[in-house]
Amino acid sequence: MLELVPEEQRRFATTVVRQLREAGFEAYWAGGCVRDELLGRIPKDYDVATDATPAEIRLLFGRKRTLVIGAAFGVITVMGSKAAGMVEVTTFRKDAEYSDGRHPDHVTFSSAEEDASRRDFTINGLFFDPLKKRVIDFVGGQEDLRRHVIRAIGSPAERFGEDKLRMLRAVRFAATFDFQLQPDTLAAIRQMADQITVVSPERIAMEMRRMLVDPRRAEAVRLMLETGLAAEVLPEIVPEDDDACRRLDRALALLDRLPQPGFPLALAALLHEPLDADAVRRVGGRWRLSNKETDRAAWLVAHRDALRDVQSLRWSALQPLLIAEGIEDLLALHEAGAPNGVDEAAYCRSLLKRPREVLDPPPLLTGDDLLAHGLPAGPKYRILLQRIRDAQLDEEINTKEEALQMVDRLSDE
Question: Last residue of some domain: 147, 176, 194?
Fold first, then answer.
């Protein structure tokens, strides 16, 4: 699958604006791509805002090149090449009330200024003309970018009342960009933090994924605690006494030391002390994480100390860890958190260089072998096969015949 190419994305987003303008419409880049452009970051995607209606957008770009999934909210997706990706083209709009705390009940097509005023934060309410290279700012976003401030557009309580997830987004933006939450915006989050629970778990999880893999993830967690959002979204980390404060400080320091962690690893680092795997699974269930994410984070927490004094471990204890799917995450967690983690992780990585047939040789016996040997099927199979496998790995037995002899001895116990 061809990955998006930033230069192609930018070129296509400019072409979309140019085509709209040549057809007689007003059109600009809008939102996060403008913010990133002004911050010197490479935008991940581009949005275009225009006074063309959805029907006019489809007519201009053609039905085969457009998607109408968001047409009810004035959004048409225009498809480019595989390298350029897609651009969402949104008609300037004014939103009605947000009865569900997520979407406006209906939208009214409007002007660029009214469209800017319905957005969440001033730094996201900017427009940019890529043809004339100029910023269109109706909300003071440029000044807030210069001052490193996250400020809700208009009344913070109204903006957060429309979509409660904006409170988490405010924290994420402040942490990611190393900005300050403007006092009124911060006060509104603190006052309304308990309302975040009306947001769907999936949307909360999406914000947490973004926060916890960001380089400033530890600061994001601190801001969640400061604003009161952590108490609602992740109460497990809220300290209740001095010991808990020290544990939290250690977890945040560990989280900070991880080099480019994926989400399950970051979550495990945050929750590994003093929680157990079952508690991690409860968090995964609350956020409706995928089984894969939950299982990985829970496995990491369950095995957080498994590599301590690794060179003294029996091979039968170490080998299952080394062949586990999450071993690289476990090594990263151990490397960042254990006193001798760097050396012990290096030792494990040296073992991982062994040929696969040496690192993970085929088992000497299977369940079919036990059945053929005359053992009635049952729960004992699992115990016997594990004992045989451990003995094989520790080189106490080396052949199928020796394995069956061991089965006989164990069966007589």
Answer: 147
